[in-house]
Amino acid sequence: MSSPLTHSVRTRSRPAWPAALGLPLALALAAPLLLTPPAPVQAQALSPAPQLTPDTAQDFVDVRVPELLAEHGAPGLAVSIVADGEPLAWAAHGVADLADGTPMDAESHAFPAASIAKSFTATAVLQLAEQGEVDLHEDVNAYLPEELRVPDTHPDEPVTLHHLLTHTPGFDERTGMDDPEDPAGQRDLEEFLRDNTPERIFPPGRYAAYSNYGTGLAGFVVQEVSGLPFEEYVERNVFAPLGMNGTEFGQLHELADQHDLVTGHGPDGAPAALVHIPLVPAGAAVTTTGDMARFMTALLNDGELDGERVLGAESVAMMLDRQFEHHPDATAMGYGTYEWRTGPPRGVGHGGDLDGIHTGYLVLPELDAGVFVAVNGDDTDPEAGASLLHDLRFAVLHAFADEFGPADARAGSETAPEADPGDDLSAYSGSYVTTRRAVEGTTRIITLFDNLAVRDAGDGTLRVRGALIPRERWLPVGDGVFVGQDSGERLAFTVEDNRATAVYLDANPTNGYDRTSALASPGLHLITVVVALLVLLTGTAHLRRPRGARGARGAARVTAAVSASLTALACLVAVGLVAYAVTDVNRLRDWVFGDSVVLTLPLALAVPLALATAGFAVTAWVRGWWGGGRWGRIRRVHYSLLPLAALAVVAVGVQYGLVWPQG
Q1: How many CA atoms lie within 13 A of 290 on its CB side?
Q2: Residue 124 contacts residue 303 (beta carbons within 8 Å)
Q3: Which pick of 98, 216, 418, 450 has the fewest CB atoms within 10 Å?
Q4: Domain for residue 317, yes or no?
Q5: Keywords in UniProt for this one (predicted)?
Q6: Closest Cα partner for 445 from 257, 581, 354?
């Protein structure tokens, strides 16, 4: 099914590097977020971009980068630029540790790599594929021991390495950290994979859903097939040949003894703790600006550097090319990479996030250029850091691409999109929830906030509401693609049988939103909770002492009122804690991954309280009175609504893993 308009406008999206190993709520729940708008499409030809030379590159890192650092207020950053097969410039600004004021040094300091390590893991997998040791399209279970095999949830649709490298295996969200100070509680890669087998919620290859587990499993295949520990294999076959002497996989708190690691910082300047990451191939690594320059140069040189080859040209092409696309006109996934923009010139790379650390690299193959940036803290400036999709790291990457490789506006149509009030866009209307979601535990809370509500505005445009979506008119530009009237951001819908089944933000190809039923709509759930809380707040009316109520009957009347009030209080506390956690993502992460009962205990208490209140309501209807006086019909109806309202809140809580104990 196509949109009514036949002309199309191609806008160029800026990158939305997804959360790497930290809680995905970091993107979904920090509010309110606005997507970084792409450069507007111009009808005229663009002015020629300045040539990328050692002088212009050094000027960029010495002048523009510190300007951005000052605007965003992070502690420090380091950056390196490559082009034409060699490093052009590198620099560091700010401090490596706020506590002691150590200046950042681009040559000596190392950084937690976070999820850019996924590109290293993909390189290792592709090496084995070149050698015929693995087949990217073979059932991955052929390379796994029985206890780690992927369940046959979708018969005749096996998960393959191709799916793992493109985040399309269909797994639910499985990620977790361990306390580095508790050796007994630390899990290695095999233990985590064995004990956290994910649910297969989608057939493989249907949707992209960013999966740290999937990359971890791909890394374990490298270990099983090569016969070497994953860390050792990558050191021997990727890092050593490329001369990446400062890059290493391992636990960060252990690597800190061997590398001069910068300190990560939160928005308040407090140092961020180094966590134990069981899924090592997904992001437990350190690197340097110089090493990332060598890695980018090798990618741009068909896998070879200084006479050493780590990948063949065909494998590098697979790594950087489109391997999974949800829409032909939108950004797509590569192997261990994803598109930043479709171009021309195309931008491909990866980003990563840990507490207080943000990294990213971007290569522009058509320009034979690349840039890497690492930031050791969160933005502190309210304006510059208002959106997680436009932090300091993104600002540097944006500025580099806009300066030296601006998208060619002439590739788009010169015709601006227009709305036709006669168009019927009801096929797109519905509720959509993130494809990157969990099916058990409190992590399910992510879908309560990371969702989209799409409606036909009736004037030839769409209305779209969501935490990551600008509130504006969305104009159809053809083939299920809509463009934001003000932001220039794009939504691309997957349409089957004349009905949209999923939608993707062009700024983030790593996961999308699939259609959900009306009853499963987070919007309906939120409305249900609000209405139920309003009903529960009226329950205190039953606390007033009845005239003539004495002795046991009066006490029973008070007990009934107290039961209703405690039920309301438990529900109000539960919702209040969730609302508070949404404003403090770090606190929410601690509660979700710290085995805390803070989010689940209130509704656990609400269940018996609601049942007790329901018992009092039944007694009131059977006897018609309570505590020395008769209840009128209105009062009995009102009291009966209280346990029903509480159970409605509990039912919504069950949907999002907020009722203890968890299954």
Answers
A1: 10
A2: no
A3: 418
A4: yes
A5: Membrane, Transmembrane, Transmembrane helix
A6: 581
CATH of the domain at 430: 2.40.128
* Token duo for residue 195: 């004990």
What are the C-alpha distances in Å from 631 to residues 381, 546, 639? 59, 10, 10
Q: Are residues 510 and 526 in the same domain?
A: no
Tokens of 362: 């971007």
- Whether 217 is in a domain gets the answer yes
Indicate whether 498 pLDDT > 50: yes
- Domain boundary (411, 437, 453) is at 411
Say if 126 falls within a structural domain.
Answer: yes
* Residue-wise pLDDT tens digits, 424-448: 999 999 999 999 999 888 888 888 8
Where in 567-634 does DSSP place strands (E)? 625-626, 629-630
CA distance 277 to 284: 6
401 and 448 assigned to the same domain: no
Rounded Cα gap, residues 145 and 162, in angstroms = 19
In a domain, 647, yes or no: yes
183 CB-contact burial (10 Å; exposed 0-12 / middle 13-18 / buried 19+)? exposed
Residue at a domain's end among 488, 516, 544: 516
Q: What is the pLDDT of residues 211-234, one digit of tens each?
A: 999 999 999 999 999 999 999 999
How far, in Å, are 355, 425, 441 from residue 587 at the CA level? Answer: 12, 40, 17
pLDDT for residue 207 is more than 50: yes
CA distance 346 to 529: 45
Say how far apart CA 593 and CA 443 lie, in whole Å.
Answer: 8
Task: Specify the range with the lowest mean pLDDT, choosing from 546-550, 613-617, 633-637.
Answer: 546-550
Number of separate domains in the chain: 3
Mean pLDDT of the chain: 86
Tell me: do 174 and 298 sit in the same domain: yes
| Same domain assignment for residues 172 and 313 | yes
Six-digit token string for 155: 């018969």
pLDDT tens track for 107-124? 999 999 999 999 999 999
121-156 pLDDT, tens digit per residue, is 999 999 999 999 999 999 999 999 999 999 999 999
User: Quick one: 279 and 348 in the same domain?
Assistant: yes
Residues 501 and 537 grouped into a single domain: no
* Residues 221 and 364 occupy one common structural domain: yes
Distances (CA, A) of 328 to 60, 131, 217, 239, 479: 34, 31, 28, 35, 9
Question: 530: helix, coil or strand?
Answer: helix
What pLDDT score was predicted for residue 266? 87
Percentage of the chain modeled with pLDDT above 70: 86
Considering only 376-385, 442-451, 552-561, which range has the smallest mean pLDDT?
552-561
As a whole number of angstroms, the distance between CA 393 and CA 68 comes to 9
**Would you say the pTM of this structure is higher than 0.90?**
no
| Claim to verify: residue 184 and residue 160 sit in the same structural domain | yes
The residues, ordered by sequence, that sit 6+ positions from 63 with a Cβ below 8 Å of its Cβ are none
Q: Which residue has the higher pLDDT, 9 or 424?
A: 424
pLDDT band at residue 348 using 50, 70 and 90 as cut-offs: very high
**Can you give the three-state secondary structure of 240-270, one letter per residue?**
HHHCCCCCEECCHHHHCCCCCECCCECCCCC
Among all chains, which residue has been given the structure tokens 């769409």? 462
Q: Is the pLDDT of residue 2 over 60?
A: no
What amino acid occupies position 393?
R
Question: How far is residue 255's CA from residue 264's CA, in Å, rounded to a whole number?
Answer: 15
Residue 215's domain comprises 25-32+54-411
Kindly give, in sequence order, each residue whose CB lies less than 8 Å from that of residue 357, ignoring residues fewer than 6 positions away.
Answer: 111, 112, 114, 262, 264, 272, 374, 375, 376
